[in-house]
Write a structure and sequence with these properties.
single chain; 104 residues; mainly alpha; elongated
């Protein structure tokens, strides 16, 4: 029980996500929780990358994602220096985004 409580507290402050927040968002979504989680996203990636469990379950197609990245003002040079870790996506998804990028 102590481990569960401790891990929930650590997750709340470190990842801004835990079981309690997930249940609240599932049953009765709260804007303040979404805003709290969005604060983790760097300013230059807002509008491209989403914070929060449910937001990340829906993925844009690689072409849509790339279009959103480029419309946000990220330059080609800046994009080429980014990795899948910068966006919190899988390597497979990132490879698809890079294939879409190479078609431009």
């Amino acid at each position: 029980v102590l481990w569960l409580v401790t891990s929930e507290i650590v997750a709340f402050f470190t990842f801004r996500d835990n079981l309690v927040l997930s249940v609240i968002q599932l049953v009765y979504p709260q804007e303040w929780i979404k805003n709290y989680q969005e604060q983790l996203v760097p300013k230059e990636l807002r509008g491209i990358m989403r914070a929060g469990y449910w937001e990340n379950k829906i993925r844009d197609s690689p072409d849509e994602f790339l279009d959103r990245v480029l419309r946000s003002g990220v330059t080609y040079d800046r994009f080429s220096s980014l990795t899948h870790r910068d966006f919190g996506v899988s390597r497979n998804y990132w490879a698809s985004v890079n294939r879409a990028f190479s078609r431009l």
